[in-house]
Automatic annotation (TrEMBL):
It comes from Coffea arabica (Arabian coffee). SMART domains: Mterf (SM00733). Belongs to the mTERF family. GO terms for molecular function: nucleic acid binding. This is Transcription termination factor MTERF15, mitochondrial isoform X7. Keywords: Transcription, Transcription regulation, Transcription termination, Transit peptide. InterPro entries: MTERF, MTERF_sf.
Length: 455
């Protein structure tokens, strides 16, 4: 007789497995909650953040933002996910009402994302119209927002500053330029702003001149009268320059006010110690001593912008004063070519300052083309540095790198044929030969009788 074994019903097995799974899940959750309660609740805010992320992405797309930039922008600014999308939309509408430009909207939002806070931006909705400036630029509005947000300033602070500048007689364009270049003027009180204008007018500038100076060099509003401007004009006087000369140079280029105290003295000292040809020195001082010193300062700043130290920049200009005769645009063009095309380091200028004193189109580019071609074709065994490129004379460079390779004559341009040309026109040598006279029989007899008498 077969024995029949009874197993447990299937539904009981399923209920038991479900019970065990739920028990394990609850134990895991309670354990996680007991160790770190925040981790157990992350799923809820994570879902809300995901919903906000999707909503904000669609909102930015509707307002013209590039889809490729939205994801990176929201990832780097997680605080925006805590804002309500409806409030962000209202903030975007306020920004567009200030200046209906997609470029303005993108630049403001990307540079200062925190201004999308509706509670902050709502206060500014009507303040810009109260300032009475019709030509506010995008950068001026952006700078006002950034400074106000960073230093917790209100719209009344910006309004007070703008009304102060206009009350002192500055034009709208000057006020806008100041807010673009030096937005921290919002934090200055009226007395400090007035002191600068009074100081310049006491020197002899007219009110319109002061407005022009501030408009062309708005960063001068950052200079203190007692600490910067007065010592600077005292230095000009100690150097022997009259107020008429100083006023003319400031009106010619207001950036003169940005010089550090003692800087012009150092520049003029370097110029007077130059050891170069008289013609070069005369051309440098042809524009006047004051302007010559200022031109040195501008070129020193240019070289420092590329990474040279203050000392190295002065050394380069002292060794190669011809660089002072080139415009700054041409100097920048040479240095960019040196760094980007020739792949040299900027400190090579300290070793070979002559590079800044030679003609770019006539000497630098043709020689580089020849050397680059020879290197690429494997004709040169050793690498040619900047010194070997600039130092040789035109004849020596031609004989070394151009004459042995006929295909390089085309790269070298019209300067290849210039080396073999004679310095004088053809047939000129005939004029320097002694004149020949025909000898007659009588002359021969006279010479013979003279020689016989001597013997």
């Amino acid at each position: 007789m077969a024995i029949r074994t009874l197993g447990r019903p299937k539904f009981l097995i399923q209920l038991n497995s479900i019970h065990n799974f739920n028990q394990e899940f609850l134990n895991r959750v309670f354990k996680q909650f007991s160790t770190d309660p925040k981790k157990a609740l992350t799923s809820i805010p994570r879902k809300s953040h995901e919903r906000n992320l999707i909503s904000l992405s669609g909102l930015f797309r509707r307002y013209g933002f590039q889809p490729s930039q939205i994801s990176n922008f929201l990832k780097s600014n997680q605080c925006l996910l805590n804002l309500k999308p409806s409030h962000v939309q209202k903030s975007l509408k306020i920004l567009l009402s200030l200046k209906p430009s997609q470029e303005f909207l993108s630049s403001v939002v990307y540079s200062c994302p925190s201004i999308l806070d509706f509670d902050f931006l709502e206060k500014w909705e009507t303040k810009f119209s109260d300032m009475g400036i019709s030509n506010f630029t995008s950068s001026a509005i952006r700078n006002i927002f950034e400074v106000s947000r960073r230093f917790e300033l209100g719209p009344d602070d910006a309004l007070r500053c703008v009304m102060c500048l206009k009350g002192l007689g500055f034009s709208e364009s000057t006020v806008v330029n100041v807010l673009e270049a030096f937005p921290l003027v919002i934090m200055m009180d009226e007395d400090r702003i007035r002191d600068k204008m009074v100081f310049l007018m006491d020197i002899g500038f007219e009110k319109d001149d002061v407005d022009r100076i501030i408009r062309l060099f708005p960063f001068s509003m950052a200079f203190e009268v007692g600490k910067k401007m007065k010592p600077l004009f005292d230095e000009f006087e100690d150097l022997g320059f009259s107020l008429d000369v100083v006023r003319w140079e400031v009106l010619r280029d207001p950036r003169v006010l940005g010089m550090e105290v003692g800087e012009l003295t150092q520049c003029l000292k370097m110029l007077r110690s130059l050891k170069c040809r008289t013609v070069i020195k005369e051309n440098i001082f042809r524009i006047g001593a004051f302007r010559a010193g200022y031109e040195v300062k501008m070129r020193v700043d240019c070289l420092r912008k590329y990474g040279l130290t203050y000392r190295d920049a002065f050394t380069v200009l002292w060794k190669e004063p011809r660089a002072l005769l080139y415009e700054i645009v041409h100097i920048e063009k040479k240095i960019d070519f040196l760094l980007q095309t020739m792949k040299f380091d900027v400190f090579c200028l300290v070793q070979v300052p002559e590079y800044l004193g030679v003609n770019f189109e006539k000497k630098v580019v043709p020689r580089y083309n020849v050397i680059e071609y020879l290197c690429s074709s494997g004709r040169l065994g050793d690498e040619v540095g900047l010194r070997g490129l600039i130092k040789p004379s035109r004849l020596r460079f031609y004989n070394l790198y151009v004459k042995p390779y006929p295909e390089c004559k085309k790269l070298y341009g019209r300067y290849a044929a210039a080396e073999v040309k004679s310095r004088h026109p053809a047939g000129m040598w005939k004029l320097f030969q002694p004149q020949k006279h025909s000898e007659s029989r009588e002359d021969v007899e006279n010479i013979r009788s003279f020689m016989e008498s001597i013997t």
